[in-house]
Design brief:
126 residues, mainly beta, 0% helix, 52% strand
């Protein structure tokens, strides 16, 4: 079992920044691919970013490339999402997730992730 707890959400004006953090506990953290997903109001959960076990490989959804950065600290069992130049369309509940396996196409698919946090709300005002 892996337990995930997100923090750092809140209300920010367009153009501002937020840093989300996900703290993991339980089984060995550094064996997992970690991902961030989000769920805007009235829509399905969507991929935002993922990072492999070492932090050497990352991937991003096109709309956040150049604005968001995913990182991890295996010594602290944390994975962060730095979000800059936020837009109103970034408003969503953001979820941290973990999956065991290689860093491949499955990293984009929410169904491939076994463990999820409870989510943290990010609201960007115009």
């Amino acid at each position: 079992q892996v337990q995930l707890v997100e923090s750092g959400g809140g209300l920010v004006q367009a153009g501002g920044s937020l840093r989300l953090s996900c703290a993991a506990s339980g089984r060995t953290f550094n064996g997992y691919v970690m991902g961030w997903f989000r769920q805007p109001p009235g829509t399905e959960r969507e991929f935002v970013a993922a990072i492999n076990w070492s932090g050497g490989r990352t991937s991003y959804e096109d709309s956040v490339k150049g604005r968001f950065t995913i990182s991890r600290d295996n010594a602290k069992n944390t994975v962060d999402l730095q979000m800059n130049s936020l837009k109103p369309e970034d408003t969503a509940v953001y979820y941290c997730a973990a999956r065991w396996g290689s860093f491949g196409s499955g990293s984009y698919d929410a169904n491939e992730y076994r463990y999820w946090g409870q989510g943290t709300q990010v609201t960007v005002s115009s």
